[in-house]
Each structure stands twice: as C-alpha cells, then as structure tokens.
Specification:
Elements (H helix, E strand, L loop, with lengths): L41 E6 L38 H10 L2 E6 L18 E5 L7 H12 L3 E5 L14 H10 L11 E3 L10 E2 L9 E2 L2 E2 L11 E3 L8 E5 L9 E8 L2 E6 L27 H13 L16 E2 L14 E2 L4 E2 L12 E5 L5 E10 L7 E11 L10 E7 L5 E9 L8 E6 L7 E10 L5 E12 L1
Parallel strand pairs: 1-2, 1-3, 3-4, 4-12
Antiparallel strand pairs: 5-9, 6-10, 7-8, 10-11, 11-12, 13-23, 14-17, 15-16, 16-23, 17-22, 18-21, 18-23, 19-20, 19-22
C-alpha cells in the first residue's frame, strides 16, 4: 500500500520526448562535459564476515579492519600486517596500484556502507564458513554481473571450521545455484565434494593467458594440501576455462583453478586455501606456508588473478581498461522484485493501484503527497571501461494538481554520483510543468562514466501544497 496521506491524483501529464530535448514548458538541465576519471588504484575487498577466522583459519590481510593501513601505512614485509593473507595484501599494497579493505559484516551492493561492493572492483571470498544470506547472494551476483570481479577460494569437503554444518564447498555452490539473479549455472562450473590430500596441480600451456603469464610472474604449478577441484560445464557458460589441473586430469574434470565470466564481470575459483596461507598470523593458529611452497608458484597465481579480476590485465569490467560484454546492468530494472537492488525512500517502490505500472505490477512512485516531501531512488552500477555505449533509459509519468503553466513548484532530478556521494552530473530536471497522460521514455548516454562505479539517483522534491507525482518504470542501462 502507498504511504498515506497521499491524495488521489488526476492523471493529467506525461513527459514528452526522448533524451535531453525539452518540449513545451519542460524544465531540463543537462550536463555536456565529460566526467573526470582520474587514475585510481584497483579496489579490492577481502571478506571477513563469514567465519574466515574460525578454527585455525586466519584468512585476513590484517587485524586492522576495514583498513589495513591503520596497522602499518607503508608495509615493507608481510609481517608488518598480521594475518595469514598478509603476504598477499602487502604484495599488492607495495605496487601502489591497489586499495585494500576488509569487510566484517553483511555484504551489500548499492548501499551506504564504506565496504559496500559498489566501492570496489573485486571481492575476495577466502574460504567462507557461513552461508551467505539471500540478500548477500543477490548483492554478490549483481556486483559481478555489473562488472565486478569475484575470487572464490574453497577448501576440501568437510572443512567446517566453525561446526555450523556448512563448509566452503557447500557455501560457494549455494551461492552459484541458489540466488535470485541467475541460478542456472551462471559461471559454468560446480565445486566437487572431494578431499584431496596432496598434489601439485599443473598449469595448462597457454602463453597468452593473463593469469598464467601476468605482471607478477609465470605460473607453473599450485598446491593441494587437503583441497578440492571443480567440474566445468562449458555448455552452460562458454567463458569457463580451467587453468591448472589435478595430476592426471584435464578438460572438464579435475580443474583446480578456474576462470569464467558472468555479465560484464569476471570470476576466479581456487580449490584450496593452503596456497594463500603465508604461515604467519595471529597467535594460537596453526598455519602452513603454502604461499612460498618451493614446488609451486602460488604467489604469482594469486596476484595475477587479482590483477585480472580487477581489470589490471586489460580484460574489461571492474574498473579496468579493456573489452566490453554487451549487457543490461541495472538490477531489478522493472521493480518487480520490490525494492530489490534499489535504495529508496520507504514506500517509493510499490504496486499500489493508485498509479499504474507501465509493465508488470510494481513501479517507483516519488512524491505525490501535496506536502513538503523529498523522495529518493538510487542504484550503484559499475560501467566497464571498455564499453563505448552506455545507454540509460527509463519510462516516466508525471501527474500534478498544480495549475500553473509557468512555475516549477515540484521537481525530479536525475543525477549521477560517485562512490562518495558527490554529484558528477545532473542528466535532467523534470517538474510539474511536464505533466501529461501516460508514460514517455527518456534516454541519456552514460558512456563518459565508463570505468567508474557510479550511482544513478532520482530525487523528487515536492512543495507544501498541491501534489505532483513522479512515476518511473522499466529502467535499463545497456552497455556495448
């Protein structure tokens, strides 16, 4: 039901035209300048909100969270940060090309938290030991779909470090098969329920692969010290690729390290946490130095994969430079899942019969009270840097009780903001002067924001008397 006391409205107006052209008395303010895109470090978020420190695990880059720089702002050796993943973190930090944070709570996408996924290029899941919630799975999948990188690190079946009945194999498979975004084998592989005691999986021969041959070195072997593998299903996702295989295996079985794509984003999977363990961490943990294993090249594998996921390889998405996979980037773009991935003022996303959706049942209804009100609707999205086209569109209907033909008493601003909330550009401003019957599609180019994570925000502001309703449906952000 809509928020009361919204007054019944007479449907009398509609926006006319597509794009940035004003018609009649429409009030449109547009930006023509190309947004600044300063070179910024690749932003990596390590998860520590799902029992990654349970038992003997110590899968953190630093005990200082969310910012490891608070422990040591200029680490020179891995012991300057405390954690079994400190070698990984310090190696990235020392390049000057990465900004690292640790998430200790629920994972979100499009929220206001400093560790919200919209602020990052890559999410690392280092052997999670509690199930992700439904909301978290939606956030993770939309983050990847919209251009983010996802690094999933498992362990052997039965590695239930916190004794809650779930291990990393089950948790990561659940993420891929039981989510609201795409549960039809979205990445093209499943994790095997195995406990392989030992092996040194070998890399395939591919001199062009950026993970096997990247800026951090050449990968030849990895390490299994109680781990598992994955089964590939290229018929479900042609982008899936096995890079390292358990001894005696090849093709679609026994893949120990896997890469794939989903939407505009990229995915990597590693079948054991031992290779990322640097042997040092918090007191009381029994750790193993797989990072420096003499029979493997685990450091190069972890670091090259991080660079590829974050865009450093030039493979597109996640804020780096590269190619572009055609996709529609907005989550829940027709509002049929309720608020879903949108952040909105209470009651804005609704199926109230007092207005009509353009399609389906749900729509976004800003203002319409006839009293001083500000409503907002927003969603963060990463526009891959390789995309030359980024076409934003939405359908808008405006009705009003205002009778003036000259004064904009009530307005709707359409803006693009950066991750800090700073307005980068105002695409348009509509008002009660745009009232008309039915919906009209509006369109704008966001290509100038390629390579950035931005927030699309609608802000409706209503005066103290006589209602104006701004009704939005069927949004889209198509990139190519």
């Amino acid at each position: 039901m809509p928020r009361s006391p919204r007054r019944p409205r007479k449907v009398t107006t509609l926006l006319a035209g597509l794009g940035l052209l004003a018609t009649g008395a429409a009030l449109l303010v547009t930006t023509t300048a190309t947004p600044a895109h300063a070179a910024t470090p690749h932003r990596i978020l390590f998860d520590d909100g799902h029992a990654e420190e349970a038992g003997n695990a110590d899968w953190i880059i630093s005990t200082s969270k969310p910012d490891p720089l608070s422990q040591d702002s200029s680490p020179s050796s891995e012991t300057d940060w405390t954690g079994a993943l400190s070698s990984w973190g310090v190696a990235l930090q020392k390049t000057g090309d990465y900004s690292l944070k640790t998430a200790t709570g629920a994972l979100t996408y499009g929220g206001s938290s400093t560790t919200d996924l919209s602020h990052f290029d890559t999410l690392v899941l280092p052997e999670p030991n509690t199930l992700f919630t439904t909301a978290e799975k939606t956030a993770i999948m939309n983050f990847v779909k919209n251009g983010g990188g996802l690094f999933m690190i498992s362990d052997h079946t039965g590695a239930d470090r916190n004794n809650d009945g779930e291990d990393a194999v089950e948790i990561l498979n659940d993420l891929m098969t039981n989510n609201s975004v795409d549960s039809t084998d979205p990445f093209g592989f499943s994790i095997d329920s195995l406990s392989i005691s030992s092996d040194h999986p070998s890399a395939i021969s591919d001199s062009t692969d950026p993970v096997l041959h990247g800026s951090f070195g050449t990968v030849s072997k990895s390490l299994i010290a109680s781990g598992t593998t994955a089964t590939l299903k290229p018929a479900d996702n042609s982008g899936v690729k096995g890079l390292l295989y358990r001894t005696g295996y090849s093709g679609n079985t026994g893949a120990f390290f896997v890469t794939s794509t989903f939407g505009s984003g990229r995915v990597a999977f590693w079948g054991d946490s031992s290779p990322i363990d640097d042997g040092t961490g918090q007191s009381g943990n029994t750790l193993y130095d797989g990072w420096n294993d003499s029979g493997a090249t685990n450091a190069a594998l972890a670091l090259n994969a991080t660079a590829w996921l974050a865009g450093g390889s030039g493979s597109g998405g996640g804020g780096g430079s590269g190619t572009c996979t055609p996709a529609q980037l907005l989550g829940n773009n027709g509002f049929e899942s309720g608020a879903g991935t949108w952040s909105a003022t209470s009651g804005v996303v609704t199926n109230s019969a007092s207005q009509s959706a353009r399609t389906g049942s749900y729509y976004a209804w800003l203002d319409g009270y006839g009293s001083t009100t500000t409503d907002t609707l927003s969603q963060s999205v990463t526009i891959p840097s390789g995309c030359t086209t980024a076409a934003l569109s939405f359908y808008l209907h405006v009705d009003t009780a205002e009778t003036t033909t000259s004064t904009a008493y009530d307005t709707l601003k359409v803006q693009v903001l950066n991750s800090s909330g700073t307005v980068l550009g105002t695409l348009a401003t509509y008002s009660n002067l745009n009232a008309a019957s039915g919906y009209t599609q509006r369109g704008f180019s966001l290509a100038g924001y390629a390579g950035q994570t931005v927030t699309l925000k609608f802000t409706g502001t209503e005066g103290s008397a006589l209602q104006t309703s701004f009704v939005i449906d069927d949004t889209a952000l198509n990139v190519s």
